[in-house]
Design a protein that fits this description.
globular; 281 residues; Rossmann fold; 8-stranded mixed β-sheet; two-stranded antiparallel ribbon
């Protein structure tokens, strides 16, 4: 997988994680107290799907292109469509798709704040340009593995850390990320941590889940959408979110949304969507 998100913007993994991110932040809004949203690999904020990188892979055709607005869509999906349409109107183009910073920004109330990290210098500069008119947003050109623990706990005391890293340098069962989550949780045990991970091989994911269980961190939820059998040696078979401290009733609603999403994004008879607790409930 190429590090820069331009190549993958709007694919089925993006669609799944952004719709569930909206649900998570809606859960954070239940309390009036402010929260801080921290994004560790923020990219550029949004992307033009007509650009050369997106056209080269065409991954968006199996993601955002497959969904249509409908009155019977789940609430989080309706909100996703509304936020996507807002971006396209602002950019004056139907080919735009938001990154996680864009969808999170639409969920910010006046009392809330965002801190966005991006290590790639070109993307960091573009992110800073895109977010310049939003006073709630701070952009940091820094490495996430150092930046997370430097930024938490935030002054708001409440918040969500969204970790969407490249996996080019991660070994098979993601030991760096397990270590990072342990360090972050030890500094901020009440924070909500969300880690995106690719599903290419089920045995590898099971080892990762076992490692996370052994950390002793309570309230770990795994949400997964596999558009292909999860042991097909063809590339990205599925997408997952590991969520520590999910908001109240999030798991039940996420399961409903994923079951709705499954036939929209997958054609294979062995495709599946699951929501399961790795630790606690």
């Amino acid at each position: 997988m190429n590090y820069r998100h331009h190549y993958h913007a709007g694919n089925f993994a993006d669609v799944m994680k952004h719709i569930l991110l909206i649900g998570l932040l809606q859960g954070m809004q239940r309390k009036d107290a402010p929260f801080c949203y921290i994004d560790t690999h923020a990219g550029c904020g949004w992307y033009n799907l007509a650009s050369a990188p997106a056209q080269k892979t065409g991954e968006y055709k199996q993601g955002v292109r497959r969904l249509q607005p409908h009155k019977n869509n789940p609430e989080w999906v309706k909100m996703w469509f509304e936020q996507l349409e807002r971006l396209r109107k602002e950019q004056n183009g139907k080919g735009y798709y938001g990154g996680s910073p864009w969808f999170a920004l639409q969920m910010m109330r006046p009392q809330d704040r965002m801190a966005l990290m991006e290590f790639h210098p070109v993307d960091a500069e573009k992110l800073r340009e895109n977010m310049a008119r939003y006073p709630q947003v701070a952009v940091h050109h820094r490495d996430a593995y150092e930046g997370i623990t430097a930024l938490i706990p935030p002054k708001e005391k409440r918040g969500l850390v969204f970790i969407d890293p490249p996996y080019e340098e991660e070994r098979q069962d993601f030991p760096q990320l397990v270590e990072l989550l342990v360090k972050a949780y030890s500094k901020w045990p009440t924070g909500v941590f969300v880690l995106w991970y690719p599903i290419k091989d089920r045995a590898m994911i099971e080892r990762f889940h076992k490692k996370m269980y052994k950390t002793g961190i309570s309230k770990q939820l795994a949400c997964e959408l596999c558009v292909m059998p999860d042991d097909t040696a063809l590339g990205l078979n599925g997408t997952g979110l590991l969520i520590i401290n999910p908001p109240w009733q999030f798991a039940e609603e996420a399961d409903k949304v994923l079951q709705w999403m499954l036939p929209q994004l997958a054609d294979h008879p062995m495709a599946k969507a699951t929501v399961s607790w790795i630790a606690g409930e």
